[in-house]
Amino acid sequence: MAVQKTKPNPRDMILDWLGQHREQVVETTLRLVKIKSPQPEGDVRAMADEIEAIAADIPGVEIERHISEEPIHNLVLRLRGNRPGKRLVLNGHMDTFPAGELSAWSRDPDGEVVGDKAYGLGISDMKGGIAASLMAMKCLADTGADFPGELVCTFAGDEETMGVLGTQFLLDTVPHAKGDAMISGDVGSPHVLRFGEKGMIWARVTAKGRSTHAAHVHKGDSAIEKLTDVMDAFKSIRSLPVASDGSNVLPLIDRWSEKSEALSGKGETQVLKSVTITFGTFSGGRLSNLVADSAEFTCDVRLPVGVPVARAEAELQRICAEAEGVSMEITRRYEPSWTAPDHPVIEAVKANCTAILGEEPAVTMRVGASDARLYRYAGVPTVVCGLTAHNLGAPDEHILLGELTALVDIFALSAHDYLVSNA
Q1: Rounded distance, CA 147 to CA 8, Å?
Q2: Cβ(297)–Cβ(228) below 8 Å
Q3: Are residues 77 and 162 in the same domain?
Q4: Same structural domain for residues 37 and 80?
Q5: Of the candidates 47, 81, 92, 173, which lies 20 to 30 Å from 250 by C-alpha distance?
């Protein structure tokens, strides 16, 4: 009697593959860190070339390059499953913070492994996350792509300047850059999953006055004093009431406060639940002994869930309208955004983080901006699960090797589980 062979379980095959290729993600990360791609220069062409070379070893992958404008190149990698289903996107960005003063580094900014850490400029934000996405796609390809639907990687050339020429360009022009769900490997932590972000307003406020010699102050009208009065009045926006919208966003922020603040700093919880304003620049006047006839400041307002842009903007406009000779220009605005915390893509990532890391991750909002918001605005549910940053944007930026290898496992297993469970 012939013995019927049992078909291997795809998830078991994925786990076996991951166990055998543990070090490859470290090598891939270091390859990417060696390629310089800082903003504001924004030249990511060499980075795109390197990713294409790495992706060429992924069986069955389709590689596309989409140029928004030189030198901003964007990549879309597509791995199709073996039957119809949903599309899951792994999103990342290729640009990094500028290098800064390299002499302050004690480790090689072009990539170096020391003990259980890997160092390099942009390694956490987010070349390690890109490497993990590439390895997760290769894992699913090498194990037979036995899943429904397709897995897509979108690697944007512009994120640090708000993504207009990167992820937004791809969402606007490449149909398969969108998906039924998205996982972002942007900087963060696999111990704290982020399902939403605050809204934002950037404003430029100017004042006109009348100049005269400081000895004849009674003949002048100080633009600087007008602006300092407006700045004081703007601080009142921090007290805007946060409306309850029926979501469970605010309770989750409170629930995971301790765990999230352990990584992101004490006070994050209050920041996530309230309006904040910071004043970024101020300029005005010509000489110390002249009354200033012009002045300008810029500010950044961040909005929690429950405070729409229109409400905050109306309050800022009211304050400016009450000050003679003062005007305001909104240079950027976007609404708070979030995905339902119990969405299947978040549940899949949460379950695999728990299994791989041995503890349940926090599930909460994010104080900073990422390209995840652009996917949410396009109607695509998202979750951010990246690497914990150490010295982000500063000398000796580094990540933990154990967390990097764990991220590959989380991405590969979550991609498989989401696509299979939601076919």
Answers
A1: 13
A2: no
A3: yes
A4: yes
A5: 92
CATH number of domain containing 288: 3.30.70.360
| Number of independent structural domains in the chain | 2
Measured CA to CA, the distance from residue 123 to residue 109 in angstroms comes to: 9
CATH number where 409 lies: 3.40.630.10
> d(Cα 134, Cα 136) in Å, to the nearest integer?
5
What is the domain range of residue 372?
10-197+336-421
Banded pLDDT at 4 (limits 50, 70, 90): low
Amino acid of residue 206: T
Q: How far apart are CA 401 and CA 25, in angstroms?
A: 9
What is the model's pLDDT at position 3?
57
Is 5 part of any domain?
no
Domain match, 99 and 22 both:
yes
pLDDT for 13 beyond 80 = yes
In the structure, what pLDDT confidence band is assigned to residue 2 with cuts at 50, 70 and 90?
low
**Is the model's pLDDT at 160 over the cut of 80?**
no
- Residue 360 and residue 319 in one domain: no
Same domain, 312 and 376: no
pLDDT digits (tens, 9 = 90+) for 118-156: 999 999 999 999 999 999 999 999 999 999 999 999 999
Same domain assignment for residues 192 and 212: no
Residue type, 360: E
The answer to whether residues 53 and 137 belong to one domain is yes
Distance CA 132, CA 130 (A): 5
Report how far residue 121's alpha carbon sits from residue 368's, in angstroms, rounded to the nearest whole number: 20
